[in-house]
Amino acid sequence: MNEPRRTNPRRTALSARTRWAVPVVAAVAVGLAFAAPPLFASADDAGLPSISPEELAAQVAAAEPSALSGTVVYTARLGLPELPLGAVSGADPINLLGGSSTLRVWSDGEQRSRVALLGPTSEFSVVQDGPEAWTYSSRDDAVVHYALSAADAVRFDELEAKAEAGELPVQGDLPTPQEAGRQAVGLAEESSTVTLDAQTEVAGRAAYQLVVTPRSDTTLVARIVVAVDAETSTPLRVQVWGTSDSRTPALELGFTDVSFATPADSVLAFSAPAGASTRDVVVPLPDPPAEAATPSTELPEGVTVSGTGWDTVVQASGLDVAALVAGDPAAAGLPGVEKSFGSKGAEELYSEFAPEEGSGSPLGDLDTTALYDTLTTPVPEGRLLSSALLSVLVTDDGRVLVGAVPGATLQAMAAR
Question: Looking at domain 16-282, which of 2.60.40.1930, 3.30.300.130, 2.50.20.10, 3.30.230.10 is its CATH number?
Answer without folding.
Answer: 2.50.20.10
